[in-house]
Write a structure and sequence with these properties.
heterodimer; A: 391 residues; alpha/beta; Transcription Regulator spoIIAA; Rossmann fold; 8-stranded mixed β-sheet; 6-stranded mixed β-sheet; 14 strands; 42% helix; B: 172 residues; alpha+beta; Heat Shock Protein 90; 5-stranded antiparallel β-sheet; binds S-adenosylmethionine
Chain lengths: 391, 172
């Protein structure tokens, strides 16, 4: 059988500092004896802690009943002898059966509880996973695609490849890429259910088939190692609080010799004329505001650094400016109008004063004014970078 | 009951994929269960709403069924597995040789998955058994995968487990 079906390696690890025992990969033993070492590690780990013992199964891809019973038995037995201890099983909403299976342990011993780690796991999540984000993403991709369709081939996009678009949002990039470059396979992953639902609806309405939209956490993906020729992750490292974790996963799923392509902004460099000052003030404030949500919207020029640290070689970096002159200036204005609404809501959430919010909004309006002005110019700079996974 | 049986027989399930293998070859390597379930899950999930997660779920369930036939298996005859689909449900039909003494065992295990106390039995199995019995595995499928399990009457020495898995609804 092909290497594609080789099981992901199974790992059991214990970190005494966080009192966390983690199981990952595929564990389908014929008998509990095969995993005896992991089972005794679990027992010893439990005996070495006080308070709360965490069992992390976020990256557990498969576990058969034989392994589940063996693990459950240890936990339940220890509950009976260690009434001082609480057990928290940390599952993910992506692998639905782990939540169900481990959830039963709570019915037997209330000392065991299950937490779904990705119900709220990064600070900007509630804004990004809201349906009001959908029109912004639509408008943005319409603008950026004009540039990226010529940029992408330089970074490794070509017909016939296996492509993954990670943090795909509403999936229109995947659709455009499919039309323009005819990859053999496209997987598009995001953690926003509303965005994915929208993506699937659009695909169905336009008769687009063959894009595998999947729900997942980009920092803990179910996708196997070395699967894709080209992996894209657009405008997303900058909004997740641990970009290096995302990159590590992108690195893992791309084939050796394949490339990972990322785009990011440097928001403080958005510009416009006339009304340059007001525009500049707002975008400086925006970068500052978003840093409170642990988003680094200044990440663009740091792409080279991030890619190098993640182990990529042959790194290419280029930048391009989306402007009001690219096509219909109204498209540009629509993007900025979406930003104004969303970022004003975030400013309010962060507790900014009404006077601040007024001035903050004004900068976006001035940016729109510049975009629609007959002699105006408005720009949004973006950094596109890629690196190769060494052979 | 009779009406339900009839409906089940008449539902227009479409065949998706099947394999047949000599029992001796199947039993030669435990990893066949893992490899076959992973491979088949991927093949049949590509046009589900969320192919990656559907495949993960389906592989879990199919692997348990293959393990059941592996554990109970003798090396005569062959194992056959066919997968069908109707709307949000996949049907797995697994046919494998079953010694005469075990037929009744399967009949009982299957009917227990549909009794009112199935969940209590399942919890009991988790809290007391060190290794899961085949009965516990079928309960797991009924409880964690919402499976409906039946036994198809065919001539000895084989039996056929028919397992309906409404995973599309659970996954998406
Ligand atoms: C700014 S949007 C960009 C979307 C899309 N790439 C585009 O350019 O239109 C960021 C996306 O990243 C997704 N996202 C952020 N963190 C994620 C994570 N850890 N796992 C999966 N998706 C994530 C969000 O749900 C959102 O759809």
């Amino acid at each position: 059988m092909s290497t594609a079906v080789l099981p992901a390696p199974f790992k059991a690890e214990f970190d005494p500092n966080s009192q966390e025992f983690s199981l990952s990969g595929v564990v389908r033993p014929r008998s509990a004896d095969e995993i005896a070492a992991s089972i005794s590690l679990l027992r010893d780990a439990i005996n070495s802690v006080r308070g709360v013992f965490y069992i992390n199964v976020k990256r557990l891809v498969q576990m058969n009943n034989t392994a589940f019973h063996a693990v459950a038995r240890i936990i339940l037995d220890e509950c009976r002898t260690r009434s001082d201890l609480r057990f928290v099983v940390v599952t993910s909403s992506v692998v639905g059966w782990t939540e169900r299976m481990f959830g039963h342990l709570n019915k037997i011993e209330p000392q065991v509880s299950v937490e779904v780690y990705d119900s709220t796991f990064y600070p900007g999540q509630s804004f990004v996973e809201d349906t009001s984000f959908i029109p912004i993403l639509r408008a943005q991709t319409k603008m950026t695609w004009r540039h990226e369709r010529t940029i992408l081939p330089r970074h490794g996009m070509r017909p016939g490849i296996a492509l993954a678009d990670i943090c795909c949002g509403i999936g229109d990039f995947a659709v455009l890429a499919q039309k323009e470059f005819q990859p053999a396979r496209i997987v598009a992953l995001d953690h926003s259910k509303p965005s994915l639902a929208y993506a699937r609806k659009v695909a169905a309405e336009f008769g687009v088939t063959g894009i595998e939209y999947t729900y997942g956490d980009a920092s803990e993906m179910l996708l196997e190692d070395n699967q894709f020729d080209f992996v894209t992750c657009r405008h997303s490292l900058q909004i997740f609080n641990q970009p290096e974790l995302l990159l590590k996963e992108l690195y893992r799923i791309v084939k050796p010799g394949g490339r990972v392509y990322i785009t990011n902004e440097k928001n403080s460099h958005c510009l416009g004329e006339p009304r340059a000052q007001s525009i500049q003030w707002t975008y400086n404030e925006l970068a500052r505001l978003l840093s409170h949500f642990e988003m680094d919207v200044e990440l663009g020029p740091k792409s080279r650094h991030y890619l190098a640290d993640a182990g990529f070689d042959d790194i290419l970096v280029e930048s391009f400016m989306v402007t009001n002159l690219d096509g219909d200036p109204q498209d540009f204005a629509d993007v900025i109008a979406g930003w104004e609404k969303m970022f004003a809501a975030m400013a309010a959430r962060h507790g900014e004063a009404p006077e601040f919010i007024d001035r903050f909004r004004q900068g976006f309006r001035d940016h729109i004014f510049a975009a629609l002005h007959p002699k105006g110019y408005a720009g949004w700079p973006i950094w596109a970078a890629s690196g190769r996974k060494p052979l | 009951m009779v009406v339900a049986e009839q409906q089940r027989a008449e539902t227009p399930f479409e065949p998706l994929l099947q394999f047949e293998m000599e029992m001796g070859a199947f039993l030669s390597d435990w990893h066949h269960c893992d490899h076959l379930s992973t491979f088949m899950a991927r093949m049949i999930s590509h046009n589900r709403t969320d192919p990656v997660r559907h495949s993960n779920f389906f592989s879990s369930a199919l692997n348990e069924l293959l393990e059941v036939s592996f554990r109970g298996g003798s090396s005569d005859g062959s194992i056959g597995c066919a997968i069908y689909r109707h709307e949000a449900t996949e049907r797995v039909k697994l046919t494998f040789p079953c010694p005469p003494g075990q037929r009744q065992f399967y009949q009982e295990a299957v009917s227990k998955t549909r009794r009112g106390n199935a969940y209590a039995r399942y919890l009991d199995a988790i809290s007391t058994d060190f290794a899961p019995s085949r009965e516990a595995v079928l309960l797991d499928l009924a409880i964690n995968f919402d499976a409906e399990i039946h036994l198809e009457e065919n001539d000895p020495p084989t039996i056929t487990l028919v397992v309906d898995l409404p995973l599309e609804g659970i996954v998406s």
